[in-house]
Specification:
133 residues; mainly alpha
Length: 133
């Protein structure tokens, strides 16, 4: 109830103030002055220059950040590619060394190779005996 009462009193006071101000304007005691300034070129110029300087500053810092990130990324990629290249190079060298080594793979294959050589030698001897007879 008290809230409604205070709201009613404040509403009556606001309307009284508005009526009083309206009456003062009609009597000519208060003049209505509109202070619309014409376009302030120098203020506009200053605001524009401030905005452009902020924009250029943020643009330059953005470009620097992107440049640093890209250069770091490329450096990291270059180092990882060097490591990959070294690993591949070592694998190829190991493969080539295995191919170059003519050593026997196992004892069984070594004995088979020896028997083949002996058989070829015996065949040659038999053919020579046939030719000589």
């Amino acid at each position: 109830m008290a809230a409604i009462f205070t709201f009613g009193i404040s509403l009556i006071l606001v309307t009284a103030i508005l009526i009083y101000q309206n009456r003062q304007i009609k009597l000519g005691r208060v003049q209505m002055i509109t202070t619309d300034d014409p376009l302030d070129f120098f203020g506009f110029k200053n605001e524009l220059s401030n905005w452009l300087s902020d924009l250029s500053r943020s643009f330059v810092t953005g470009i620097l950040k992107v440049f640093i990130k890209i250069s770091f990324f490329l450096k990291e990629q270059r180092e990882s590619n060097k490591n990959r290249f070294q690993v591949v190079k070592e694998k190829i060298n190991r493969f080539i060394e295995k191919e170059k080594s003519v050593g026997p793979v196992s004892d069984f294959l070594q004995t088979v190779g020896e028997y083949k050589a002996k058989i070829k030698k015996i065949k040659k001897e038999i053919e020579e005996e046939k030719i000589n007879k």
